[in-house]
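Anyone else keep sequences and structure tokens together like this?

Example one:
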Amino acid sequence: MGKTSFFLLAFISVFQCLMICVAITNLNISTDQAALFALKSHITFDPRNPMAKNWSSSTAVCNWIGVKCSSRHQRITALIISDMGLTGSIPPHLGNLSFLAYLDISNNSFSGILPPELSRLRRLKHFNANSNNFVGEIPSWFSLLSRLQNLSLASNSFTGTIPSSLSNITKLESLVLGFNMLQGHIPPEIGNLQHLKRLSLGYNRLTGSIPLSIFNISSLQSLVLTNNSLSGELPINMCSHFQQLETLALSSNELDGQIPSVIHECSGLQILSLSYNDFTGSIPRQIANLSMLTILYLGNNKLEGEIIPEIGNLRQLELLSMENSGLTGTLPSSVFNITNLYWINLHGNHLSGSLTKEMCLHLPVLQFFDIGSNEFTGKIPKEIGNCTSLVNFYLGENNFTGEVPWEIGNLFNLDRLALYQNSLGGEIPPILFNISTLRGISLLGNYFSGSLPENICLQLPNLEELYLGINNLSGFIPASISNASKLTRLGLGYNHFTGSIPNSFGSLRHLQYLNVVVNSLTSESSVQGLSFFNSLTNCKQLRQLWIGDNPLNGILPDSIGNLSASLERIYAANSGIRGHIPNEIGNLSSLAFFFLHGNELTGSIPRTFGRLWNLQALNLYDNKVVGPIPSDLCNLIKLGYLSLSFNNICCSLPACLGNISSLRYIYLSGNRLNSTIPVRLWSLTDLMHLDLSSNFLSGSLPLEIGNLKVATLMNISMNQISGIIPTTVEGMKGIIELSFAFNRLEGLIPESFGNMLALESLDLSHNNLSGAVPLSLEALSHLTYFNVSFNKLSGEIPTGGPFSNFTYESYMSNEALCGASRLQVPACKASFPNHGRRRKQVLAIVSTSLAACIILASMTIILIRHRQRDNIPIQTDSLPAASHGRISYYELERATNGFSENNLLGVGSFSSVYKATMSGASVVAVKVFDLQKEGASRSFDTECEILRSLRHRNLVKIVSSCSNLDFKALILAYMPNGSLEMWLHSNNHFLDILQRLDLMIDVASALDYLHHGYSTPVVHCDLKPSNVLLDNDMVGHVSDFGIAKLLGVEETIAQTKTLATIGYIAPEYGSEGLVSTKCDIYSYGIMLMEAFSRKKPTDAMFEGELRLKDWIKESWPNAITQIADPGLLRPQEENFTAKLQLISSIMELAFRCCAQSPEERINVRDVLSALNKIRSRFSQFIHKH
């Protein structure tokens, strides 16, 4: 009985314990359930509704979606609700899940902070909150979770620094904090985490150096610190403890120094990414010992040297990227033996050599190959067709030649093909347009010729970008391009396409960019309007439209206003467009750049321009626009560039232009504006260029002119501005070019000009200025052009600073200027009362003059005795001798070393020219006439007669002469840079496009003086490049007047014997001997063609019927690149368009000079005006870009 009672009592006790445990268990499950219900209530968006359907009291908690429980305690141990698209916040109740070991809430949209109650999850081993919207600092309470092994908080919005307390989580194996906004240094205490395998802190704002302690974590397998601002060098012994490291990603930081040569000691490395840093030195050869390496990123550093040939030892390598790193040498052939390579990027280095034919033999999986922007040469091997896995193939910006191999059509997986800016030629293989996978083709900047296939885009359904510009393609633009219905960008500019712009382009509904500039495209002959505009109205995504520099010769239709509302740029310049600008242009609300310059537009500027709120640049330069400038333009608050020059715009200059604070460039020259300059205009403090020249503006210059502190160009010449120049002009500290010429200014030249230290060009000519030239201007060290001619100035011309370089032309026609004789002004008087600062200079001048007189007297006595002894009659012509007195034959003989061939500069029809070094080391040119030749003596007399009175900066200056019965010579200013012919046609000389233009302006200026600037017109009769000599500053001077003619009263004279040079002779001069100024114009036109084509009219190719003029006319204006000097035009250069237009305009002017009939030829003043206009247009383009 007692035994039975004992067992019963024991059973009851155990039963009671079990009941208590069950009760406790039920209580804890309820706590877990309550925590999850709290979480559910904090979720504001549940797109898939799993919680609404499943998380309910009718379902056991352990069966809820994302919940896992322990079998022993029936408590929640894992909560995995990742990738569910949930929005909401984390409630503090989640801290009650006391058995939780695994928490994954990643890839949702949770926001707010992580509640501190989560610090109670002491059993937690894995916490993943990646890809949410959490904010605030990373909680320091994570250090309380002593069992935590994996902590991932990447891709949130955490700020602040990385808590050093994280180092207390000693069991941590993975710490991922990337893609946040963390800043500050990496705590060195991180190095205490000796179990850490993965450390990822990339894409933050961390600074400072990488703590050395991190390099001591021997367990580390992956270190990712990319996209921060970390600096410093990598330690030399960085790999001592990194035997297990597999990934080292340090790209996009500010690390410098050399890549440690011990990098190979990280022997387990599979990924090495050091790109986008400032590493220097060469690639360590030891890198080739990383036999496990699969990915190598070294691009965008400051490396040097070659790609190591041992790189071929990296047999596991899949990706090789060394772009933009300054590497030189050749591409090692061993690279093409790495069979696993699918990606090669060597773009933007200085690599050279050619591609091997075997490049595809061992690269079966190559998909990406980019060697663009290097210096590779040779042909593209046809074996490239064996790289059948290629997806992206980039060879642009190299020096590849030959044709594109047809085998490239075997690349059926090709997505992008870039062969731009090479020297490839021939026809584009039609098979190229059969690769249906292609999305991008760029062949621009080569020498491809022929026409495009009529069915060009029938097999290119995926094509998005097609660039064929800057080639020699011809024929019609195929309408079938419209079959590439996904096309967004189409570039066909700078070719020789003819016909009209296809209306089928309107089918390209995704088109954003269309460029057909510089072709020979015309409007449809049946209509006057440019009908293609109508079709382009269907291209609703069009953003840029480039159609200029074509002979469109049509009228802008009103439908231009129906173009895409997204249209930002229209370039339709130099295209013969007529009629008025439609009012509908105001509908293009996104338009930012509108270029219609160089056309034949008439009518007024539409007031609807005022609706183009986003307009930044408006260029109507060189049209026939009339009427006033509408005040509606003042609504364009973003306008930065306004060019209305060379139109017929009248009336007043709107004062409200001064309200457009964004204006940087204003060009209104060559119009009929007739108001004062509004004071408000001077409030544009950011204005850089202001050109109001050649108008009828009046009034005075206000004090506010000094507000334009950043202006670099101001031209108000050729107006009717009166009054004084305000001293506040010095406020324009940045001014480089300043012209107030041809106005009615009076008073003194302000001393304050001397404070404008950036000045390079100052023109105050043709005014009524008086007083002295201020000495303060001597401080303008950059001044290269200075003109105060045709004023009423007096006093001594300054001699310091830049003034030693200016010629008499700077000071012509003033009242009482004095100074050096070379300036052709009277010498200053020796006495200068009240000029104490000049006394020392005066004493020096007087002393020097006395000494010179004594020496001159002594030399005269010796010379007289010498002549008496030799009894040889010598006479010196009465030509002026500015720097040399009388010069004898013996002086010339001595100065030329006996007229040695070593000093021979050139030989002409009647004379030879020698370099002579006179006593005192001055150098002159001596032109010795061969009196044995018939006409030589007459040639000498002609030059003496003509040059006796002529004075111009672009004529060769005669110094003196030497003449007797047996010897005649002219002593001329020495031109150290030889002749224009030498610079054009010798292999070791080159003139750029502006130098050629400036030299031809020099020649035209000389002709203008000869034809119109002297009392009797002078005809040179033998104008050619060899008669244009260049001085130290590369300024051109016309020489050799041996057969020149003075016309007298008559405009034309008959010449019985033609002595001019074949190739340059005007037809009437050669056939009839008729001489007029129009003969020089004809010769000048031939010179223009020669200067820019680098072809002589006497070249062998012109021996038959073909003449230089005819040859150029065949290619103008549609094929300028065929006749222009190749050295002037490089398709890849920035200013190619402007240069092409310049040469085209030059050739057009040359044709006007070379008209068959003299009456049809342009006169020299119009030539000079046209040249200056061409130069101005080119300069505007350069300044704009």
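And example two:
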Amino acid sequence: MSFSPRKNCGASWRHSGGSNVQSFSHRHAKRENVRFGVNKKSRNNLVIDKQIQEATPEHLRIEIDQIFKKFVSDPSETEYIFPPDYNNLQRKYIHYKAQIMNVSSRSHGKEPNRQLHLKKKPKELINQAFQVPVSDSILHHLQDFYEKHDDLQLQSIMKHRPVKRFEKIYGRLQDSLPLIPEIIRFPNKEIEKMRQQLPLFEKRQLILDAINTNQVTIISSETGSGKTTQIPQYILEEAALKKIPCKIICTQPRRIAAIAAAQRVSYERGEPVGSSIGYQIRLESKCGPNSYVFFCTVGVFLRNLMCGNSCLKKITHILVDEIHERDKLSDFLLICLKQNLELFPNVKIILMSATVDTTKFQEYFKCNQVLSLPGRLFPIQSFFLEDVLSMTQYSTPHMKSAMSKIQQRQNSVQDTQIETAKLSEQDQANWDSVLESYLNFSDNYDYKIHYEEATADLLQLLISEGIPVDQQHSEKGYSALMIACQLGDLEFIGKLCTLGASIDVADAFGKTAMDYAKLANKCDVLEILDFIKSQKGVVTETNIDDSPNLLQLYDMTTPDDFIDYNLIVALIKYIDANSDSGSVLIFLPGYDEIMQCNDYIVNSNIDESTYRVFFLHSNMNMRDQCDVFKVLPNQRKLILSTNIAETSITVEDVVVVIDVGKVKEKIYDSYNRLSTLQTQWISRSCAKQRQGRAGRVRPGFCFRLYSRQRYNYMSEERVPEILRVSLEELCLHAKIIAPRSMNVYEFLSLAPDPPSVNSVAVAIEHLQYLGALDREEDLTKLGEYLAQLALEPRLGKMLIVSCIFKCLEPILTLCAAMAHKDPFQLPPQANLKTLAMAKRQELINDVPSDHSVYLLVFQKWQDAVVRGRSKQFCSEYFVSESTMYSVLDTRRLLLGQLRAVGFVNNSRCIDDFNYNTSSWSLVKAIMLTGFFPNIAYPVQQGLALATKDEKKVSIVNTSICTTKSYNHWYFYDEMVKNRINFMIRGVSVCSPFMIALMCGINVIYPSSCSVKIDDWLEFNFASELPIKFRKTIQSLLHNSLSNPRYSFEKKNLIISNTLCKIVDIEERSAGIKVVQNVGIRPKFLYKITSNPNFKYENGAMKELDQSTKGVGFNSFFNTYFTTICFWKKIDFITMHKQGRTPKRFIPPNKQAQYREHKAAASRNLAFDNIPSATNFVQNFQQCNLNTDVAGAGQSNLYQNPNNDYFALNQNQSFAGHKKDYQSSQKHGEFKIREKQSNKH
């Protein structure tokens, strides 16, 4: 199969109304820092019309986009002034871009000196005061409360404990010493042969020598070369031969990659996972006492560093994989590693990248050792848009219409050229005089000072009198452009070219403008003329009648943000006609584009029997698309995918890639404090990654639906995540890891690409709003807790506050759900999207809260699991079953972390934390503490909403709260912006009364009946009781953070109950519908074995002894037994010692299975003969069970586990026995102490 562009029949053409020199005249644009101003000028509709598109060529649009990107990203820039080179239509394009980028734009002055100014919109706090009515019923409850509990009017504030360094961080890797690896005595010959065929094998010794002789080594190699799985083995094998102890940490940006790498390396070594090769991710761990290599996510390894850098003493090698992806945690890890290079010379750091250009990392670490290793891709031939248009001879009605207009304009130019010879003698004499004055101007005046005077007369004649721009001197034949080139007048050259001046007009001696520039030795002018000639071509007498080429016509008629599905279909037809086999992978920005492309393909005249369409999207069910990885013998696979297929998913038989060059990225604008999901051009490195998908099994082809010029203007690498996301999580990490002498910004500024001062300041401000940092930017007690939870800070605060107010259960589910991606999947057919939304609305049942759906879907899913209908439920409601199981696991993880940090007291029953779970109003009040200041309130008689930073916003139309008029207050997840409007998403109704009670850290009380929160919201009441109760609530929160047991004092339980009552009354009086049965506890999941994490029914864990059916016993025991033991507070150790079985909790159809597993356990685990908890733990070690006792988090029990019910660094209580498990490690040996205590 071969593809070759047809010869282009069209000649080069230059649009006479376009600008040819804007790309360099921008360098001379003026920049000023002036006071902010709001542009009140109305804008036209945000749709580019044909005239604007034609007048703004691609190279100019690219440069304008780059100016906007730089201006918006630089917080020090407040104003940008475009030069007066642009015509009216091009300025309209700039206004269009300004509105998209949320920047004010306005033009000033008159032609030809009219300039367009960009200004950032000012950010001013919108101070508001509100009178809040309170019902008599609420006042009666508060009055009764203070009459009965007069001592609670003003509680004393406990002294805040000083923040100390973290000694234990939950969920980190085991702190074992390096060990001497064992030599594999009988390796599998087939596997060894396969390893030797990998491209890296020939460079094995080169890699090892580089690692041994350098502290930092950078290795770049293409995807599929084997660097992730082979380099750790090379190090391990060398250490085994030389009998050198080693401990290797391999970090991965994604959990699935860490697991897959560990499984692959274990398979190649002929060992079970968890022996010499282990892994640990957030919800799962499989490591053993004799593990030498640990694959983990970056976040897990960072938790080790949060305990102090002493952990690096026990590590010999750290491999940081996929550094080219530039995720925020990997960049943060690089800061930490660089800070510790000199302190720990024993640690070898290996940075691995899939891109060739590693210059940035080389300069960052001052590393001289960079290995660029070969991959095994087959040759791939690339084609750009101009080639595709030529191959397919693609044309649209708009292109034909533009062609007709251009021919008319060219005919007009010819007529003008004829008329130029017929100027009157007076007009010609005036023109000759003005040209001579311009030529001799610099003899008498300073040209730089009197520039406008020098060119004013010329421009007057050209614009007002209609003199042709190429009109020549009557005797000497030079034109205005020729003189400008001789003088080196860059500004005037730009204006003349904008007016359509030709660079090929010759004077009386045959010299052109380029010859004038050469004779005057004006190198900068020559560069400009060369650029004009290469970009837009030359209009000469020989080609004046020729047509423009296809690319120019396409560029004139197709907006940059438009995806041409007709062109994709035409290209598929062309591929079908020129090749006989091979899958086609089509990269598209998002779900809507995938569905539209599919519609165009289905509705085309391509024979449906010859192809099959597949979809790849992170929010679509992959089970429906599993055939995408199979070879279809009689059909071609057309795979419509987002950027997930760049690295995460590989389809081996792809031969052709069609790349539209766009990606949807979520960008956080720290200046405007909003998130936008933007469709942007990809980087060149991403384009190369996409191209590489085509050559894995045979030579391939890549068709890029963007021009070579666009490709050359693309950024080299994608924007690092640390520059485009909010930084609250990293700021918390920095407060723990950074040296005490260094503030947060100073530490983050050490990143390879430092975030802006404004981005860090906004993140710190938000943490201060949460109460995680104080005014001096020091970590508070709340911040100390939040840093240890595997949650974003606002969700962590909600979780902690729920423990204080005894409403843990629903908040636990909500936090676990919101910590994951949306559980609702996008349907594989566009016509089902409406049905999917209707099913989501059905779950909510008109409750005005988008957040309630997470709780309701989890509860209904559990009911479906109990009835054995999990898959049917997920299919009916378009829910991801794997996400639901992940939410279940995350619930267990979070509860385990609350126990580990001591906030959930182990001496108490879990019911003690759930007294108030039946109140949806209290759930929302608790959520407010995390979401504040994301508050919206009605303005303009309910026609719009206002927020802290914006005067007018609306709710996204996919929200249950969408309405034409707004009568309530709302809290929301985030603010986003489409092309013209600000909108809020993830919305729930609340009341100002709730906000006045629960929100705010920096608070002042102007009077006994009013409160002002964070210098923004002021609430006034007719009574002083609400303010008194707010002070009571805030003192309870403060004291409980200092001492979590404080909230269980009787008087504080009364406060929680009173809060629950009054917010319920407030919601009822406002007529707000609430969620029923919100406090339902997770049910006993009889069908838990369908959870893919347990691998029970398919027997996937071959390393366990099959005679014991260990996997089945593991899952069965965790699910059917210990979960019940936890909720019912049954001492399961004592029960097994006595041989008792809780049959009443086990369904009848499972009792025989239980007896079988129990018998197997008696033979192989000696479980029924356990004399103490120590043996219980050690027997689990011996069988290498990859789980904790309660099946929560699936961590090894002998290390610090990720589970709900066991945290070995905390005192535990099980119905009368208090075990203090303290593990110490020495050369892989663990000692566990047990002590008895009195019953509680």
